[in-house]
Amino acid sequence: MLERLNEAMEYIERRLDDGVDVAEAARVAATSEYHLRRMFSALAGMPLPEYIRRRRLTLAGAEVLADRDTLLEIAVRHGYGSGEAFARAFRAMHGIGPGEARRTGATLSSQSRMTFRLTVEGSSDMRYRVVDKQAFSVVGPKARVPLVHTGPNRAIIDFVRGIAPEDLERLEKLSDQEPRGILSVCDDLDPSRAEGTELDYYQGVVTSAAAPEGAAVLPVPAGTWAVFATSGPAPEAIQHLWRDVFTEWFPSNPYRSRPGPEMLRTRLSPDGSEADAELWLPVERDGS
């Protein structure tokens, strides 16, 4: 998997000036575009489109300082339709406009080319199982919230705090299959997974029962799920689980992620310091 991912990175590098076709990069990596975006974001710590943008602006920065072509020629070569759009993007990355950078020989930022290697640490013994589930529904309160990569998501925290405890108690009685109990469910994420993009967040249950009046319903078709379990200090144990699934488990197993809701069941100790958690991710076998 890592070898094919690095071949996709080589393809991206060759096509920076001509326009990167992410679907073609996924074909080179022998996986789906959805999984490539997920894998890259988890491994690199940034969305794939952001990496491509930063690599283009790194090359453009070197050309600006070289002072051989006009700024408009450089802008067009790197996919910008106008000098103004190029100047905005250039300033966002380098902290200075291209004209001023050329005049002053300013210090610019650089996004290094990425390659991926497997580091054997022997520190992670992941507990997982693969489950085939029939169609079901996620039922419960729903909110549209921004994606936050690090730190608390205040929108989710405020949303959950606004749900009456008695409503959650009634909702929990509808849970009639795995994963049982009240869940945190994320769906309809932007493919880029960029900071600030929006997603649907449910505080709900998995059920085959009819939804109560006013509750949101997310129908989920039959499919395969990888289920990961962890326990330890909260929230670090859960954060580390998400990290390890995408940086260790997917590269080492014949599965890839597929579109669908991501479900997390968490049980906290009485003082909130420890957590037992199950993470359910929709998957399919590579090549399926």
Keywords:
288 residues; alpha+beta; ten-stranded antiparallel beta sheet; 10 helices; 10 strands; 38% helix
Report how far apart the termini are: 15 Å
- Number of separate strands: 10
- Largest sheet features: 10 strands, antiparallel
Individual helix count? 10
Low-confidence stretches: none
User: What structural class should be given to the helix and strand makeup?
Assistant: alpha+beta
Average predicted local confidence, pLDDT:
89
Measured by DSSP, the beta-strand proportion falls in 15-25%
Helicity level = 25-40%
Which outline best applies?
elongated
H-E string? HHHHHHHEEEHHEEEEHEEE
Radius of gyration: 22 Å
Which secondary structure elements does this structure contain, and how are they paired or packed?
Blueprint: H1 2-14, H2 22-28, H3 33-44, H4 48-66, H5 71-77, H6 83-94, H7 98-104, E1 127-133, E2 136-140, E3 142-146, H8 154-161, H9 165-172, E4 183-187, E5 198-207, E6 216-220, E7 223-233, H10 236-252, E8 255-257, E9 262-268, E10 274-285
Antiparallel strand pairs: 1-7, 2-5, 2-6, 3-5, 4-5, 4-9, 7-10, 8-10, 9-10
Helix pairs in contact: 1-2, 2-3, 3-10, 4-6, 4-7, 5-6
